[in-house]
Amino acid sequence: MHADTIRSINNLGSLLCSCKKHDEAEPLLRESLAKHRALLGDLDESTLTCMGNLAKFLEERELLVEGEQLYHECLAGRRAFSGEKDQGTLARIYNLADLLKTKGQLQEAEQLFREELEKCREILGDDHEETQNSIRNLAELLEEMGQVDEAARLRAEVPDSEGEEEEEDGEEP
């Protein structure tokens, strides 16, 4: 089977997911991943994309154990394929951390959220939107874990997420 055909299977599976046709989507996502692996190997970008799509699907269907396994595999593949300083790797770190948080594995999630924030700061800088999101994500987790002082320090680093505008020249409106 040609790689473009396999990508089309994955795209159709993803489309069916977005249309909430999960029973039709799952076999296509699984088939696509199996065929990508067979044709292109585990460290191909298309294979890793399919792996991430299936992991996200499983997470949304609350099949968290299998989703976690795929996220771990996808993150390891991304690290090997793209390296540590790649936004795709950062996204996979976030995906796994978020799933672990959902499962209640808060310490493991914290380690990954901290890693993601450190790498966002290094790669993107403190003012980048993704870095700011990473700060908010870690702060939210820390609040959930009862570490409110550290969470407050982190939240102080980012502009108000409500979208309030700063006053110019210190003048009152």
TrEMBL record:
Annotated region (Disordered), positions in chain: 151-173
Lineage top rank: taxon: Eukaryota
SUPFAM superfamilies according to UniProt: TPR-like
Biased composition range(s): Acidic residues: 159-173
Name of the protein: Uncharacterized protein
Record organism: Effrenium voratum
